[in-house]
Write a structure and sequence with these properties.
Blueprint (H helix, E strand, L loop, with lengths): L1 H12 L5 E2 L11 H33 L3 H21 L12 H5 L8 H10 L7 H4 L9 H9 L17 H25 L5 H7 L11 H28 L19 H18 L8 H22 L5 H4 L3 H28 L2 E2 L9
Antiparallel strand pairs: 1-2
Helix pairs in contact: 1-10, 2-3, 2-8, 2-11, 3-7, 3-11, 7-8, 10-11, 10-14, 11-12, 12-14
Length: 365
């Protein structure tokens, strides 16, 4: 399943804009894009830009003053940035997907361990380190998973004492971590700018029309939102939770979960699910003009909310939580609830909106 997932997501993201059926007329508010942009997109992007900027600053302080307290501060800012990213990550269309920005921030799934292999190789080399040079390299070296290894992986303690000037030592390691943080903050700024009011994408999303690109109607905007929410639910379940859960308890492998080293797997997933909830609300799928749509929207939120609560209640580190019976049961329940939410979204809610989303390679898995 995981090996096929990236191809499946690609097929989903490349789907053409949804068709609009006559029985959905009036179910989509004309201001759907403006509501989502103002109520969700702009605040989420601003928070990501702010937290990633603070992280970049914390890395510079750490490199200039290696100390356990500064390392701990950078680790805290890392987790805050991952949380902010979790909310932004559901916007998997437009500026976030252009120029590989999503993968440059978050190269996942990584079933072959490319990030670990490349990061360790880079740390052991003498290649130049800067945000500018990093942006031209493999996406696996550029983003948050790579920075997690720098801050939490084997040898991270050298960041707190400044030991070593090369290889796995603190000086080169810190310079690399600072370059990653600067790179992520720069990408966050790019995305926010491309979504800014008055920009071409923002205008098309908030005021679609026959001559606009890429959105010619409110229904096409609604289709993009539904597709983004569905992609987020599938990605969270299939790429982030199920590979670590395994098919049976003996096959659990917590180290296959994202951000297990920083013990922030469930912090990320909770942020992603909370973002889907907010996206659905702001789109008018819960308290909008059509009560049938609202009913399906509330059903979705019920399932997502229960999944999120189950994951937030897990007290163990992800490395162990997926195999411990009590918490494994909670995680399993969450994956079932997310599957239910996805079917409600792609089936009943999309149909009530008059959207024909088309099939993709994930359907039926």
């Amino acid at each position: 399943m995981p090996a096929r997932f990236s191809l499946c997501i690609a097929a989903l993201c490349l789907s053409v804009a949804p068709c609009v059926a006559q029985d959905g007329e009036g179910a989509v508010g004309r201001d759907i894009g403006a509501r989502v942009a103002d109520g969700f997109v702009t605040p989420a992007l601003a928070d990501f830009a702010r937290t990633s900027g603070r992280l970049a600053g914390a890395m510079r302080v750490l490199c200039g003053n290696p100390a356990p307290t500064e390392l701990a501060a950078a680790q805290v800012d890392f987790r805050k940035t991952v949380t902010a990213w979790g909310r932004v990550s559901v916007l998997r269309f437009g500026p976030l997907t252009a120029e590989n920005r999503f993968e440059r921030i978050y190269f996942w799934p990584d079933v072959r361990g490319v990030t670990l292999r490349q990061v360790q190789g880079f740390l052991a080399s003498e290649e130049p380190v800067s945000a500018a040079s990093l942006a031209e390299r493999s996406v696996a070296l550029q983003g948050l998973p790579a920075l997690e290894y720098v801050l939490f992986g084997t040898g991270a303690e050298t960041l707190g004492n400044g030991e070593g000037g090369n290889g796995q030592g603190g000086t080169r390691r810190c310079a690399y971590g600072a370059a990653i943080a600067d790179n992520v903050a720069g990408i966050a700024g790019e995305i926010a700018e491309l979504w800014s009011e008055g920009g071409d994408f923002h205008v098309s999303f908030t005021a679609p029309g026959p001559d606009m690109n890429p959105y010619r109607s409110a229904e096409e905007v609604a289709g993009e939102i539904v597709k983004a929410a569905g992609t987020a639910l599938e990605f969270t379940r299939n790429a982030e939770l199920l590979p670590a859960l395994g098919r049976a308890n003996g096959q659990a492998h917590g180290r296959r979960a994202p951000f297990w080293r920083s013990e922030w797997t469930f912090g990320l997933v909770a942020a992603q699910l909370s973002a889907v909830e907010d996206l659905v609300r702001e789109a008018g799928f819960v308290e909008g003009p059509d009560e049938t749509v609202n009913g399906y929207g509330r059903s979705m939120l019920f399932d997502i909310g229960h999944a999120r609560a189950a994951l937030e209640a897990v007290p163990l580190a992800p490395e162990h939580a997926f195999e411990e019976a009590q918490w494994r049961a909670r995680i399993t329940y969450a994956t079932v609830a997310l599957e239910g939410a996805k079917h409600t979204l792609n089936g009943q809610l999309a149909g009530a909106l008059g959207l024909v989303m088309g099939f993709n390679a994930l359907d039926g898995d």
